[in-house]
Specification:
12 helices, single chain, disordered C terminus, elongated, alpha/beta, four-stranded mixed β-sheet
Amino acid sequence: MDDSITLGVSACLMGEPVRYDGRDKGDPRVMHRLSGVFRLIPFCPEAQAGLGIPRPPMRLVGDPRSPRLVTVATGQDLTESLITHCTSECIRCTSMQLRGFIFKSRSPSCAVESAPIHDREGAVTAMGSGLWTRAFQQAFPMTVVVEEADLADEQGQRRFVERVLVADRWQKWVDGTVTAHHLTEFHARHKFQIMAHDREAMKSMGRLAAASGAAETLSYGRELFAAMARPDTLERHVDCMMHLFGFLKKRVSSEQKQEFLHLLEACRLGRRSRWEPWSWLRSRAQQHRIRYLLNQWYLFPDPRETQCHPVGPNNGTDSDGRHPKSFTW
């Protein structure tokens, strides 16, 4: 079975000279790192719509909910030309099974909520998405969408890869026969991965998985994508690892319990990498052959999740730089 995953990407980020000035915006994170993990298909709606290379600079103007695409110098309205092309591209994308898309930031066609929207006098009144991005997200709401700016650091790249892999597993699950047993199994394997992003969503999704009707399955998918889009934090990871430790506490010695708790406390305080207690749990799960733990994507991720950046130390703090509250056992 072909396990390759396909993503769309703005062509300029792949080093193709398709921008309005005839240049590219080649991004090494996309061209070299992510291209080693995923199959990337380049798109440039402006060039593919026949607007030319080079072409006059364009911007979004008018109502932020439905802006128009016009040339900066003459005000020529090119909205319909681009929308017509975007509609046909969405039809073409249907057979590609794209699991994600990396868009160019601030582009009037490709931005994700970062394109300036102007009034008739040229003043910026709001920020919004480009026309191609709007069309794509409307056609494929269950596809992971980011800008290259979201991949600026290793944490952003790791989160994106994780989201894409979860999206791929979900879509493959949906494409099969989703019975109550199957959905509860899917949730059980992803429970702690979801919990690291949103504990309340994890609980809500557990109830949906237990019901597992058609409506509940649809709601489960939406909640899954929403939860995985929220940032994971050290506090939530500490919570996950404490819960996972509960499956081991009767299997390990008092000395081993103290070893783990000391590791986790040091992690919580930012003195040790969170990968250290995580690795401890992995090792004990394998040693004691606890099937529930061995099936957790949280502890045993898809190898592609660490292909860009191998699992290793980080600074051990939450995304806002604070340490989570202390815990007791």
